[in-house]
Amino acid sequence: MTEDEAAGGTGSDVSRRDYVKLGGAALAGLSFASLGGAVSGDDGGADAGAGEGDGSGNPLLIEDGTVVTVDPDYGILHDADVFVRDGRIELIGESVDAPAADVVDASDSIVVPGFVNAHLHTWESSVRGIAGDWTFQEYLVKMLGEISSHYRPEDAYLGNLFGAVQQLNAGTTTVLDWFHIANTPEHTDRAIDGLRDAGIRSLFAHGPPGDDSARWWENSSVTHPDDVRRLATERFPSDDGLRTLAMGIRGPDYSTDEVVASDIELARELGVPASMHVGSLGSGGVAKLDELGLLGDDLNYVHGNRLTDEEFRLIGESGGSVSTTPEVELQMGMGMPALGDALEAGAVPSVGVDVVSNVSDDMFTQTRMALQVQRGLANQPVVERGEQIQSVSPTVHRALEFATIEGARALGLADEIGSLTPGKRADITLIDTDDLNTAPVHDPVETVVLQSGIGNVDTVIVDGTVVKRNGLIHNPTAANHLDRLEASGRRILRRSDL
Ligand SMILES: [Zn+2]
Description:
This protein is an alpha/beta fold.
Protein backbone atom coordinates (compact mmCIF):
# COMPACT_ATOMS: atom_id res chain seq x y z
CA MET A 1 0.00 0.00 0.00
CA THR A 2 1.35 3.38 -0.91
CA GLU A 3 1.20 6.33 1.39
CA ASP A 4 -1.46 7.88 -0.79
CA GLU A 5 -3.55 4.76 -0.68
CA ALA A 6 -3.04 4.64 3.04
CA ALA A 7 -4.36 8.15 3.12
CA GLY A 8 -7.37 7.08 1.14
CA GLY A 9 -6.41 9.09 -1.90
CA THR A 10 -5.43 8.24 -5.40
CA GLY A 11 -2.51 10.57 -5.82
CA SER A 12 -1.02 13.85 -4.80
CA ASP A 13 -3.61 15.86 -6.67
CA VAL A 14 -6.56 14.81 -4.55
CA SER A 15 -8.24 17.99 -3.44
CA ARG A 16 -9.98 18.74 -0.18
CA ARG A 17 -13.28 18.72 -2.05
CA ASP A 18 -12.64 15.18 -3.27
CA TYR A 19 -12.20 14.04 0.30
CA VAL A 20 -15.39 15.66 1.42
CA LYS A 21 -17.20 14.05 -1.50
CA LEU A 22 -16.00 10.67 -0.28
CA GLY A 23 -18.47 11.17 2.51
CA GLY A 24 -17.97 9.84 6.00
CA ALA A 25 -19.32 10.44 9.43
CA ALA A 26 -18.81 13.46 11.59
CA LEU A 27 -19.21 13.69 15.31
CA ALA A 28 -18.19 16.55 17.53
CA GLY A 29 -16.01 17.98 14.82
CA LEU A 30 -14.21 14.74 14.21
CA SER A 31 -14.49 14.12 10.49
CA PHE A 32 -13.61 10.88 8.85
CA ALA A 33 -12.84 10.05 5.30
CA SER A 34 -14.95 7.03 4.46
CA LEU A 35 -12.69 4.33 3.13
CA GLY A 36 -15.19 1.51 3.33
CA GLY A 37 -12.86 -0.40 5.59
CA ALA A 38 -14.25 -3.59 7.04
CA VAL A 39 -14.21 -4.28 10.72
CA SER A 40 -14.47 -7.79 11.99
CA GLY A 41 -16.39 -9.04 14.95
CA ASP A 42 -19.18 -7.65 17.05
CA ASP A 43 -16.91 -7.56 20.04
CA GLY A 44 -15.23 -4.60 18.55
CA GLY A 45 -12.26 -6.78 17.82
CA ALA A 46 -11.37 -4.36 15.13
CA ASP A 47 -8.13 -5.07 13.42
CA ALA A 48 -8.40 -2.75 10.49
CA GLY A 49 -7.09 0.35 12.16
CA ALA A 50 -5.11 3.19 10.74
CA GLY A 51 -2.18 0.92 10.15
CA GLU A 52 0.76 -0.10 12.20
CA GLY A 53 2.85 2.58 10.67
CA ASP A 54 5.52 0.17 9.65
CA GLY A 55 6.65 2.55 6.98
CA SER A 56 6.54 -0.15 4.37
CA GLY A 57 4.72 2.04 1.86
CA ASN A 58 6.17 4.30 -0.78
CA PRO A 59 8.55 7.04 0.21
CA LEU A 60 6.83 10.28 1.13
CA LEU A 61 7.86 13.78 0.09
CA ILE A 62 6.42 16.70 2.05
CA GLU A 63 7.11 19.47 -0.40
CA ASP A 64 7.69 23.24 -0.16
CA GLY A 65 6.70 23.68 3.46
CA THR A 66 7.75 26.05 6.19
CA VAL A 67 9.56 23.45 8.25
CA VAL A 68 9.92 24.17 11.96
CA THR A 69 12.29 21.39 12.90
CA VAL A 70 12.62 22.11 16.65
CA ASP A 71 16.18 20.91 16.10
CA PRO A 72 18.75 23.65 16.79
CA ASP A 73 20.98 22.32 14.03
CA TYR A 74 18.28 22.82 11.41
CA GLY A 75 16.13 25.63 12.79
CA ILE A 76 13.32 26.87 10.58
CA LEU A 77 13.54 26.19 6.85
CA HIS A 78 11.39 27.92 4.24
CA ASP A 79 10.21 26.26 1.01
CA ALA A 80 11.79 23.07 2.26
CA ASP A 81 11.10 19.43 1.66
CA VAL A 82 10.98 16.57 4.15
CA PHE A 83 11.72 13.19 2.64
CA VAL A 84 10.44 10.14 4.50
CA ARG A 85 11.39 6.56 3.76
CA ASP A 86 10.72 3.39 5.74
CA GLY A 87 8.99 5.44 8.42
CA ARG A 88 12.01 7.63 9.06
CA ILE A 89 12.91 11.18 8.13
CA GLU A 90 15.73 10.66 5.69
CA LEU A 91 16.39 14.16 4.44
CA ILE A 92 15.29 17.76 5.00
CA GLY A 93 16.30 20.37 2.45
CA GLU A 94 15.43 22.36 -0.64
CA SER A 95 14.30 20.75 -3.87
CA VAL A 96 14.73 17.17 -2.77
CA ASP A 97 14.62 14.93 -5.83
CA ALA A 98 12.41 11.92 -5.10
CA PRO A 99 10.48 10.97 -8.25
CA ALA A 100 9.09 7.74 -6.80
CA ALA A 101 7.71 9.36 -3.66
CA ASP A 102 4.10 10.18 -2.91
CA VAL A 103 3.90 13.94 -2.57
CA VAL A 104 2.19 15.99 0.12
CA ASP A 105 2.03 19.61 -1.02
CA ALA A 106 3.02 21.70 2.00
CA SER A 107 3.28 25.04 0.25
CA ASP A 108 0.43 26.37 2.40
CA SER A 109 1.55 24.61 5.55
CA ILE A 110 3.80 24.84 8.56
CA VAL A 111 5.45 21.49 9.13
CA VAL A 112 6.14 20.69 12.78
CA PRO A 113 6.98 17.59 14.80
CA GLY A 114 3.83 15.81 15.92
CA PHE A 115 2.87 16.95 19.40
CA VAL A 116 3.65 14.82 22.44
CA ASN A 117 0.80 14.70 24.96
CA ALA A 118 2.69 13.65 28.08
CA HIS A 119 -0.31 12.76 30.22
CA LEU A 120 -3.74 11.46 29.20
CA HIS A 121 -6.26 9.07 30.71
CA THR A 122 -7.41 8.14 27.24
CA TRP A 123 -10.25 5.90 28.43
CA GLU A 124 -12.19 8.92 29.70
CA SER A 125 -13.07 9.99 26.17
CA SER A 126 -16.27 7.97 26.61
CA VAL A 127 -17.35 10.40 29.32
CA ARG A 128 -16.13 13.55 27.59
CA GLY A 129 -17.36 16.82 29.02
CA ILE A 130 -19.13 15.79 32.23
CA ALA A 131 -16.79 17.13 34.91
CA GLY A 132 -16.18 20.76 34.04
CA ASP A 133 -17.36 21.96 37.45
CA TRP A 134 -15.82 19.23 39.59
CA THR A 135 -13.23 19.74 42.31
CA PHE A 136 -10.33 17.31 42.60
CA GLN A 137 -12.02 15.60 45.52
CA GLU A 138 -15.23 15.20 43.52
CA TYR A 139 -13.20 13.76 40.67
CA LEU A 140 -11.57 11.20 42.95
CA VAL A 141 -14.94 10.14 44.36
CA LYS A 142 -17.00 10.17 41.17
CA MET A 143 -14.53 9.21 38.47
CA LEU A 144 -12.18 6.83 40.27
CA GLY A 145 -14.70 5.73 42.90
CA GLU A 146 -17.72 5.18 40.68
CA ILE A 147 -17.55 5.70 36.90
CA SER A 148 -14.34 3.70 36.45
CA SER A 149 -15.97 0.61 37.97
CA HIS A 150 -18.64 0.51 35.24
CA TYR A 151 -16.25 0.21 32.32
CA ARG A 152 -16.32 -3.14 30.58
CA PRO A 153 -13.39 -4.27 28.41
CA GLU A 154 -15.19 -3.02 25.30
CA ASP A 155 -15.73 0.37 26.91
CA ALA A 156 -12.00 0.54 27.56
CA TYR A 157 -11.41 -0.32 23.91
CA LEU A 158 -13.79 2.31 22.57
CA GLY A 159 -12.59 4.98 24.99
CA ASN A 160 -8.99 4.42 24.06
CA LEU A 161 -9.65 4.09 20.33
CA PHE A 162 -11.62 7.30 20.03
CA GLY A 163 -9.57 9.19 22.57
CA ALA A 164 -6.42 8.35 20.61
CA VAL A 165 -7.96 9.06 17.20
CA GLN A 166 -8.99 12.47 18.43
CA GLN A 167 -5.44 13.09 19.61
CA LEU A 168 -4.27 12.39 16.07
CA ASN A 169 -6.98 14.64 14.72
CA ALA A 170 -5.57 17.40 16.92
CA GLY A 171 -2.04 16.95 15.61
CA THR A 172 -0.76 14.89 18.54
CA THR A 173 1.21 11.86 17.39
CA THR A 174 2.43 10.49 20.73
CA VAL A 175 0.56 10.08 23.97
CA LEU A 176 1.38 8.73 27.40
CA ASP A 177 -1.78 6.77 28.15
CA TRP A 178 -2.10 6.55 31.93
CA PHE A 179 -4.46 3.62 32.27
CA HIS A 180 -6.16 3.21 35.64
CA ILE A 181 -9.09 0.96 34.80
CA ALA A 182 -7.08 -2.25 34.66
CA ASN A 183 -10.09 -3.94 36.23
CA THR A 184 -9.29 -7.24 34.48
CA PRO A 185 -6.50 -8.30 32.11
CA GLU A 186 -9.11 -8.13 29.36
CA HIS A 187 -9.73 -4.45 30.10
CA THR A 188 -6.02 -3.85 29.70
CA ASP A 189 -5.72 -5.86 26.51
CA ARG A 190 -8.63 -4.08 24.90
CA ALA A 191 -7.27 -0.68 25.89
CA ILE A 192 -3.98 -1.54 24.18
CA ASP A 193 -5.98 -2.77 21.17
CA GLY A 194 -7.66 0.64 21.05
CA LEU A 195 -4.32 2.41 20.87
CA ARG A 196 -3.21 -0.04 18.18
CA ASP A 197 -6.30 0.50 16.09
CA ALA A 198 -5.98 4.27 16.41
CA GLY A 199 -2.48 4.08 14.93
CA ILE A 200 -0.99 6.48 17.47
CA ARG A 201 2.45 6.24 19.03
CA SER A 202 1.98 5.57 22.68
CA LEU A 203 3.64 4.89 25.97
CA PHE A 204 1.08 2.69 27.71
CA ALA A 205 1.35 3.33 31.45
CA HIS A 206 -0.32 0.32 33.02
CA GLY A 207 -2.00 1.35 36.25
CA PRO A 208 -4.24 -0.09 38.96
CA PRO A 209 -7.84 -1.31 38.60
CA GLY A 210 -10.64 1.24 38.75
CA ASP A 211 -13.10 -0.92 40.63
CA ASP A 212 -12.19 -0.18 44.25
CA SER A 213 -10.75 3.26 44.90
CA ALA A 214 -10.40 2.75 48.66
CA ARG A 215 -8.26 -0.33 48.04
CA TRP A 216 -6.10 1.15 45.31
CA TRP A 217 -5.93 4.87 46.03
CA GLU A 218 -6.24 5.51 49.77
CA ASN A 219 -2.80 4.95 51.28
CA SER A 220 -2.90 1.64 49.47
CA SER A 221 -1.02 -1.30 50.88
CA VAL A 222 -1.60 -3.34 47.72
CA THR A 223 1.31 -3.57 45.31
CA HIS A 224 0.98 -2.98 41.57
CA PRO A 225 -1.00 -5.65 39.70
CA ASP A 226 1.26 -8.48 38.63
CA ASP A 227 -0.43 -8.50 35.22
CA VAL A 228 2.15 -5.94 34.11
CA ARG A 229 4.66 -8.81 33.91
CA ARG A 230 2.43 -10.51 31.34
CA LEU A 231 2.21 -7.28 29.35
CA ALA A 232 5.98 -6.96 29.33
CA THR A 233 6.44 -10.37 27.80
CA GLU A 234 3.26 -10.80 25.73
CA ARG A 235 2.14 -7.36 24.57
CA PHE A 236 5.39 -5.41 24.64
CA PRO A 237 8.12 -7.97 23.99
CA SER A 238 10.28 -5.31 22.35
CA ASP A 239 10.46 -1.55 22.43
CA ASP A 240 10.92 -0.97 18.74
CA GLY A 241 7.29 -0.50 17.72
CA LEU A 242 4.70 2.23 17.98
CA ARG A 243 3.72 1.19 21.46
CA THR A 244 5.94 0.85 24.47
CA LEU A 245 5.25 -0.03 28.10
CA ALA A 246 5.42 2.06 31.25
CA MET A 247 3.97 1.69 34.73
CA GLY A 248 1.40 4.10 36.13
CA ILE A 249 2.13 3.77 39.84
CA ARG A 250 0.19 5.30 42.72
CA GLY A 251 3.34 6.74 44.30
CA PRO A 252 3.81 8.26 47.75
CA ASP A 253 0.61 10.34 47.75
CA TYR A 254 -1.63 7.30 47.34
CA SER A 255 0.24 4.24 48.61
CA THR A 256 2.42 3.12 51.50
CA ASP A 257 6.21 3.38 51.52
CA GLU A 258 6.48 -0.36 51.04
CA VAL A 259 4.20 -0.26 48.01
CA VAL A 260 6.02 2.72 46.52
CA ALA A 261 9.35 0.91 46.84
CA SER A 262 7.95 -2.35 45.50
CA ASP A 263 6.29 -0.68 42.51
CA ILE A 264 9.35 1.33 41.49
CA GLU A 265 11.58 -1.71 41.92
CA LEU A 266 9.22 -3.67 39.67
CA ALA A 267 9.36 -0.96 36.99
CA ARG A 268 13.16 -1.06 37.16
CA GLU A 269 13.17 -4.84 37.00
CA LEU A 270 11.04 -4.64 33.85
CA GLY A 271 13.15 -1.79 32.49
CA VAL A 272 10.19 0.57 31.99
CA PRO A 273 9.61 4.13 33.18
CA ALA A 274 7.22 4.83 36.06
CA SER A 275 4.78 7.73 36.09
CA MET A 276 2.97 8.96 39.18
CA HIS A 277 0.61 11.73 40.22
CA VAL A 278 2.27 13.68 43.00
CA GLY A 279 1.99 17.01 44.77
CA SER A 280 -1.55 17.92 43.81
CA LEU A 281 -2.87 17.23 47.33
CA GLY A 282 0.14 18.39 49.29
CA SER A 283 3.92 18.35 49.49
CA GLY A 284 6.31 15.69 50.75
CA GLY A 285 5.92 12.97 48.13
CA VAL A 286 9.20 13.57 46.37
CA ALA A 287 11.01 14.08 49.68
CA LYS A 288 9.69 10.65 50.64
CA LEU A 289 11.05 9.13 47.44
CA ASP A 290 14.42 10.68 48.26
CA GLU A 291 14.28 9.32 51.79
CA LEU A 292 13.57 5.87 50.37
CA GLY A 293 16.45 6.19 47.93
CA LEU A 294 14.18 5.76 44.92
CA LEU A 295 14.74 8.91 42.83
CA GLY A 296 15.87 8.43 39.26
CA ASP A 297 15.65 9.65 35.68
CA ASP A 298 13.10 6.95 34.93
CA LEU A 299 10.44 8.66 37.06
CA ASN A 300 7.78 11.00 35.65
CA TYR A 301 5.97 13.33 38.06
CA VAL A 302 2.49 14.48 37.07
CA HIS A 303 1.18 17.86 38.31
CA GLY A 304 3.54 18.58 41.23
CA ASN A 305 1.69 21.80 42.07
CA ARG A 306 2.30 21.76 45.81
CA LEU A 307 5.80 20.29 45.90
CA THR A 308 8.44 22.39 47.66
CA ASP A 309 11.36 24.08 45.92
CA GLU A 310 13.60 21.49 47.53
CA GLU A 311 11.51 18.69 46.03
CA PHE A 312 11.78 20.24 42.58
CA ARG A 313 15.52 20.47 43.10
CA LEU A 314 15.55 16.74 43.86
CA ILE A 315 13.60 16.01 40.68
CA GLY A 316 15.93 18.14 38.60
CA GLU A 317 19.09 16.66 40.07
CA SER A 318 17.87 13.12 39.56
CA GLY A 319 16.94 13.77 35.91
CA GLY A 320 13.19 13.32 36.39
CA SER A 321 10.47 14.85 34.26
CA VAL A 322 7.44 16.90 35.23
CA SER A 323 4.15 16.77 33.32
CA THR A 324 2.04 19.88 33.68
CA THR A 325 -1.66 19.67 32.77
CA PRO A 326 -2.59 23.30 33.30
CA GLU A 327 -6.26 23.43 32.45
CA VAL A 328 -7.40 20.69 34.80
CA GLU A 329 -5.01 21.76 37.56
CA LEU A 330 -6.45 25.27 37.51
CA GLN A 331 -9.99 23.95 37.50
CA MET A 332 -9.81 21.33 40.21
CA GLY A 333 -7.85 23.21 42.83
CA MET A 334 -4.58 21.33 42.66
CA GLY A 335 -2.63 24.58 42.76
CA MET A 336 -0.93 26.69 40.14
CA PRO A 337 0.79 24.79 37.32
CA ALA A 338 4.37 23.99 38.19
CA LEU A 339 6.00 24.50 34.81
CA GLY A 340 8.17 27.34 36.11
CA ASP A 341 9.30 25.30 39.10
CA ALA A 342 10.26 22.45 36.80
CA LEU A 343 12.21 24.78 34.52
CA GLU A 344 14.02 26.46 37.37
CA ALA A 345 15.04 23.11 38.82
CA GLY A 346 16.29 21.76 35.51
CA ALA A 347 13.67 19.02 35.39
CA VAL A 348 12.39 17.92 31.99
CA PRO A 349 9.24 20.00 31.36
CA SER A 350 6.32 18.46 29.50
CA VAL A 351 2.66 19.26 28.92
CA GLY A 352 -0.41 17.06 28.86
CA VAL A 353 -4.20 17.08 28.67
CA ASP A 354 -5.01 14.67 31.54
CA VAL A 355 -8.80 14.22 31.33
CA VAL A 356 -11.25 15.11 28.58
CA SER A 357 -14.01 14.43 31.10
CA ASN A 358 -13.13 17.92 32.29
CA VAL A 359 -11.08 19.88 29.81
CA SER A 360 -10.11 20.41 26.19
CA ASP A 361 -8.08 17.70 24.56
CA ASP A 362 -5.68 19.47 22.24
CA MET A 363 -2.10 20.42 22.82
CA PHE A 364 -2.63 23.86 21.31
CA THR A 365 -4.83 24.81 24.24
CA GLN A 366 -2.74 23.13 26.92
CA THR A 367 0.58 24.49 25.69
CA ARG A 368 -0.81 27.98 25.34
CA MET A 369 -2.29 27.80 28.81
CA ALA A 370 0.94 26.45 30.34
CA LEU A 371 2.89 29.24 28.68
CA GLN A 372 0.68 32.16 29.59
CA VAL A 373 -0.06 31.03 33.15
CA GLN A 374 3.66 30.69 33.80
CA ARG A 375 4.24 34.15 32.39
CA GLY A 376 1.51 35.48 34.65
CA LEU A 377 3.09 33.81 37.68
CA ALA A 378 6.48 35.25 36.78
CA ASN A 379 5.07 38.71 36.14
CA GLN A 380 2.94 38.99 39.24
CA PRO A 381 5.65 39.78 41.84
CA VAL A 382 6.82 42.62 39.60
CA VAL A 383 3.27 43.85 39.22
CA GLU A 384 2.77 43.73 42.99
CA ARG A 385 5.86 45.86 43.48
CA GLY A 386 4.22 48.44 41.26
CA GLU A 387 6.94 48.02 38.64
CA GLN A 388 6.88 47.17 34.93
CA ILE A 389 8.23 43.87 33.65
CA GLN A 390 11.37 44.04 31.53
CA SER A 391 10.98 40.79 29.57
CA VAL A 392 8.57 37.94 29.01
CA SER A 393 9.46 34.34 29.81
CA PRO A 394 9.29 31.55 28.72
CA THR A 395 9.32 32.36 25.01
CA VAL A 396 6.85 31.09 22.46
CA HIS A 397 9.63 29.09 20.82
CA ARG A 398 10.35 27.39 24.13
CA ALA A 399 6.66 26.52 24.47
CA LEU A 400 6.75 24.63 21.19
CA GLU A 401 9.63 22.62 22.64
CA PHE A 402 7.51 21.73 25.68
CA ALA A 403 4.90 20.28 23.33
CA THR A 404 7.39 18.35 21.20
CA ILE A 405 11.01 17.56 22.07
CA GLU A 406 10.69 18.05 25.82
CA GLY A 407 7.63 15.82 25.88
CA ALA A 408 9.64 13.22 23.98
CA ARG A 409 12.41 13.52 26.58
CA ALA A 410 9.91 13.12 29.40
CA LEU A 411 8.69 9.89 27.82
CA GLY A 412 12.21 8.61 27.10
CA LEU A 413 11.62 8.78 23.34
CA ALA A 414 13.75 11.77 22.36
CA ASP A 415 16.15 9.67 20.30
CA GLU A 416 13.27 8.68 18.04
CA ILE A 417 10.79 11.56 18.00
CA GLY A 418 10.16 15.12 19.15
CA SER A 419 11.97 17.00 16.38
CA LEU A 420 12.19 16.86 12.61
CA THR A 421 15.69 15.47 12.43
CA PRO A 422 17.03 13.12 9.77
CA GLY A 423 17.20 9.66 11.26
CA LYS A 424 14.25 10.12 13.60
CA ARG A 425 10.89 8.46 13.07
CA ALA A 426 8.54 10.44 10.85
CA ASP A 427 5.91 11.82 13.26
CA ILE A 428 4.83 15.03 11.54
CA THR A 429 1.95 17.52 11.70
CA LEU A 430 1.04 20.06 9.02
CA ILE A 431 -0.76 23.27 10.00
CA ASP A 432 -2.66 25.24 7.35
CA THR A 433 -1.30 28.74 6.81
CA ASP A 434 -4.11 29.98 4.58
CA ASP A 435 -6.91 29.86 7.13
CA LEU A 436 -8.47 33.02 8.48
CA ASN A 437 -6.98 32.48 11.94
CA THR A 438 -3.48 31.61 10.71
CA ALA A 439 -2.85 33.98 7.77
CA PRO A 440 -0.63 35.84 7.31
CA VAL A 441 2.28 33.97 8.84
CA HIS A 442 5.15 36.20 9.97
CA ASP A 443 6.61 33.90 12.61
CA PRO A 444 5.59 30.27 12.06
CA VAL A 445 6.22 29.31 15.68
CA GLU A 446 3.91 32.04 16.94
CA THR A 447 1.34 30.91 14.40
CA VAL A 448 1.47 27.33 15.67
CA VAL A 449 1.61 28.03 19.41
CA LEU A 450 -0.65 31.05 19.73
CA GLN A 451 -2.87 31.23 16.65
CA SER A 452 -3.65 27.64 15.62
CA GLY A 453 -6.18 25.08 16.70
CA ILE A 454 -7.49 21.66 15.76
CA GLY A 455 -9.29 23.08 12.73
CA ASN A 456 -5.97 24.08 11.19
CA VAL A 457 -4.46 20.58 11.40
CA ASP A 458 -4.35 19.54 7.76
CA THR A 459 -2.16 16.45 7.73
CA VAL A 460 -0.81 14.12 10.41
CA ILE A 461 1.81 11.44 9.86
CA VAL A 462 2.79 8.78 12.39
CA ASP A 463 5.87 6.68 11.77
CA GLY A 464 5.69 7.54 8.08
CA THR A 465 2.01 6.61 7.74
CA VAL A 466 -0.49 9.34 6.85
CA VAL A 467 -3.36 9.19 9.36
CA LYS A 468 -4.97 12.55 8.58
CA ARG A 469 -4.95 14.35 5.29
CA ASN A 470 -6.73 17.40 3.95
CA GLY A 471 -8.34 17.82 7.32
CA LEU A 472 -9.87 14.36 7.45
CA ILE A 473 -8.96 11.45 9.71
CA HIS A 474 -8.45 8.15 7.94
CA ASN A 475 -9.43 5.37 10.25
CA PRO A 476 -12.09 2.95 9.06
CA THR A 477 -12.29 1.25 12.44
CA ALA A 478 -13.24 4.46 14.20
CA ALA A 479 -15.44 5.69 11.37
CA ASN A 480 -17.55 2.55 11.60
CA HIS A 481 -17.94 2.58 15.37
CA LEU A 482 -18.88 6.11 16.36
CA ASP A 483 -22.32 5.00 17.47
CA ARG A 484 -20.78 2.42 19.76
CA LEU A 485 -18.73 5.06 21.55
CA GLU A 486 -21.86 7.09 22.17
CA ALA A 487 -23.75 4.03 23.45
CA SER A 488 -20.82 3.07 25.66
CA GLY A 489 -20.60 6.52 27.25
CA ARG A 490 -24.33 6.69 27.87
CA ARG A 491 -24.44 3.22 29.42
CA ILE A 492 -21.55 3.96 31.77
CA LEU A 493 -23.15 7.18 32.98
CA ARG A 494 -26.59 5.57 33.35
CA ARG A 495 -25.10 2.97 35.66
CA SER A 496 -22.99 5.39 37.63
CA ASP A 497 -24.39 6.73 40.87
CA LEU A 498 -23.38 10.36 40.57
ZN1 LIG B 1 -3.81 12.16 35.57
